[in-house]
Design a protein that fits this description.
Radius of gyration of chain A: 12 Å
Number of helices of chain C: 4
Radius of gyration of chain C: 16 Å
Largest interface: C-D, 35 and 34 residues
Number of strands of chain A: 5
Shape of chain C: globular
Shape of chain A: globular
Strand order of the largest sheet of chain C: 1-4-6-2
Order of helices and strands of chain A: EHEHHEEE
Strand order of the largest sheet of chain A: 2-1-5-3-4
Number of helices of chain A: 3
Oligomer: heterotetramer
Chain lengths: 85, 85, 154, 154
Amino acid sequence: MRVKLVYFAWVRERVGRPDEEVDLPDGVATVADLVRWLKGRGEEYDYAFENEAVVRAAIDHSHVKPDAAIAGAREIAFFPPMTGG
Amino acid sequence: MRVKLVYFAWVRERVGRPDEEVDLPDGVATVADLVRWLKGRGEEYDYAFENEAVVRAAIDHSHVKPDAAIAGAREIAFFPPMTGG
Amino acid sequence: MTPIVRIQAQDFDVAAEIAALGGGRRDIGAVVTFTGLCRDEGGRLAALELEHYPGMAEAELGRVVEEARARWPLQGVTVIHRYGRVLPGQNIVLVVAASAHRRAAFEAAEFLMDYLKTRAPFWKREHLTDGSMGAWVEAKEADDAAAGRWAPPG
Amino acid sequence: MTPIVRIQAQDFDVAAEIAALGGGRRDIGAVVTFTGLCRDEGGRLAALELEHYPGMAEAELGRVVEEARARWPLQGVTVIHRYGRVLPGQNIVLVVAASAHRRAAFEAAEFLMDYLKTRAPFWKREHLTDGSMGAWVEAKEADDAAAGRWAPPG
């Protein structure tokens, strides 16, 4: 499955890029699976997700929990807790 | 004791004047006494104060309860519940 | 900080009042405004006539403002209440509360409106679109209840 | 009623937004505005840099607005959030809620701010007056608690 990943704020800084396209292996079914898979790709991802519980995720512009299925997703975002307003 | 009385909204309309100066006899010590005394003066006052519990009072620009002493008052106001805002 | 309390016949400009209250300060984080307007009540109402008690209106609004300042850390507060004839769609009352944080600004503005409704000596009378003089607006029990939910300062 | 949701770099004009939302209506009784401003944090802060997630920011603010409309009888609602560099004393966010009665307008405005704080994809970074790049602002637990006090719609 091919999907676009986007990163914001310090997650973006730690990963070292604002976005990327990735090809996911079959076992990667949920957001939590995706995070685990990314952490295996290099230390920048390990650093970005060092405290997994803190990083939030969205699929196609909607907030999701770690157990959310990613099948059919076009764009998956990772970012810190929001501080707008 | 000489004091100025002022009336507002439908209390003013029922009494038939916006204000007046009155000389109070010695027994009139509280706002409730004053209302009783006024009701003895004529039917316009009887009409204005027909439901005493509804009419509010202020002494020298501060809200007061019926048992408030009126000694030293310069201006006593009577008016309906407020509807500003 | 000098609170602004005004009783006036003319309309007010919300943006100008926010600007006057901010006045170049850089420590304000939150400004809440409340504007109360005259409704046409489904076309029944031609205007509201607002009677007030000059002198006491200023004094009472001043006391309500001081009570708000004692309860919340406000950096600015403005209360403006109009009197006289007000047409549907026009402004009646403005409350502005500024603070470092939003909760204080929201609470203070709501407190000011709740207290003002039940304590400021203003009375509304309706003028109807059929040309007749309507009734004096009756006070709402809901307004007393709203004012009552603010416990005395601790 | 068409809600207004805008994400923009430029500043906004509170008075113009109130006027746009009112738009000659005569049935609005209460308008509450909330303006969030950049504080200088005692002189420490030179600016805030606001990063956002284009597309999702609009979508999420739209969802928050729809939730407010489902909960309160609103006659108008506007949410404007800036991005980019904002200086102390300048505006960051505007919420406007209009209703026939004040309680609904106050509650909706406060709800919109509480929800927006924890759900709208914006992130603040500090630029300091000593010329250095400051830290990303940390989310506050108090904001989660504030959003949590609004029970799910009944």
